[in-house]
Amino acid sequence: MLIRPATLNDIPTLLQFEQGVITAERPFDPTLVPGAIKYYDLEMFITSPDVELLVAELDGQLIGSGYARIKQSEKVYFDFERFAYLGFMYVLPQHRGKGINKLIIDRLKEWAKAQGLTELRLQVYAGNEGAVRAYEKVGFGKHMVEMRMGLERGDDNKA
C-alpha cells in the first residue's frame, strides 16, 4: 500500500472518486441539484502549496483519496488563525474497512503539523453514521451540529 501525493495524471481516476463521493452523499442532502455536479477543483488541489491531496495506491491502482486544505479561521476568538480542513475522503467500496482512510488521515495530519497547524476540521453528514464512526475511530469528535430547514420555494414572478 502506497500513500502518495496526487499528480495531474491521477485526475481521470480522481474524477471517478469525486462522483463516488457525490453518489454517497446524495441520500443525506436533499439540497444537491439533480444530475451531474462537481465538488472539487482537482488541478488546483494538486498544484497549490496550501493543499495536500493524497491518494492510496495498491498494485498500481488508485483505491482512495483525501485532502487537507489550509483555511483561515473566520473567528478571531479562536486560539488558532489557520487550520487544515479535510475533505474528499473516499475509498473504493471493495477496499473499505481495511484502514485506508486512517492511513490517509495520518499522512494529512503529518502534513498539517509540518505547516505549523494545530487544528484539523472536517464535515460529515449527521445521518452518515458509518462515516461518523470512522472519523471518531481516528480521533475526531463532534464539535458543532449544523442544522437546516428547507422553505417552500415561491414563484417570485407572480404579480
TrEMBL record:
CDD domains hit by this protein: NAT_SF (cd04301)
Classification of source organism: Bacteria, Pseudomonadati, Bacteroidota, Sphingobacteriia, Sphingobacteriales
PROSITE patterns given in the database record: GNAT (PS51186)
Annotated InterPro entries: Acyl_CoA_acyltransferase, Bact_Acetyltransf, GNAT_dom
Domain N-acetyltransferase intervals: 1-159
Gene3D superfamilies, alphabetized: 3.40.630.30
One MF annotation (Gene Ontology) recorded for this entry: acyltransferase activity, transferring groups other than amino-acyl groups
Keyword set, alphabetical order: Acyltransferase, Transferase
The UniProt record lists the keyword Ubl conjugation: no
Protein name per its UniProtKB record: GNAT family N-acetyltransferase
